[in-house]
Amino acid sequence: MEKRLRIGDLRDVKENLKNAKFDKTAWKTLGNELGLHPNRLTMIEANYKGDVESCFTECLSEWLKKVDDVEKHGGSTYSSLIAALKKMERTADVVDDLGDLLGTEESDKSQALQPKVSPGAELDIKDLNQVDTVLKKALFGAVNWKTLGLRLGLLATTLDCIEAEKSDQPAYLQKVVQKWLEKKDDVKETTWNVLIAAVKDIDNAAAIKIRGILKA
């Protein structure tokens, strides 16, 4: 039987989530998926005046105390924590890293990483998160967002507009993928094959990894 986590495990749980690069600002969503009631999460936020670190810590503390519907959500175990993370958006990498840290087989069993389309099938805007996740898994550098945009058929003026938003490179890369999926500018096709070809011109290793992910 899997070990039940207790309040004494709080430090280890926090450290593992930190090492898996979990975004602490999503503590409320995580708490909800772990079985904490919305009013409790609201109370935590009020008590700590929205301080992310404190709210995150208290959320995990309450989970480890098995309050509200925690038992109905699998109890306080790493398996239930991973299951909760899988239900959240953009956490596939966290699930994989946490699985690796714990030495479990939970890693890339996250279906979010397993495209349900063939490489030649057309993608659209609803596939944005999936494409973004696959690029991250393939270790494609966000620093290459502008070159990728040009390879995919976006115009330099469009890329300049994206850059004018004054965000960071991962955000620019996601915006490029979004514009591509929306078939802006000179984009003709939005398939995995087209994306892989564009990535290959920039980073052959990443292109190979994408093909591997699609075959998994």
TrEMBL record:
InterPro entries: DEATH-like_dom_sf, Death_dom. Residues 27-90, 144-203 form the Death domain. It comes from the Eukaryota. GO terms for biological process: signal transduction. This is Death domain-containing protein. It comes from Amphimedon queenslandica.
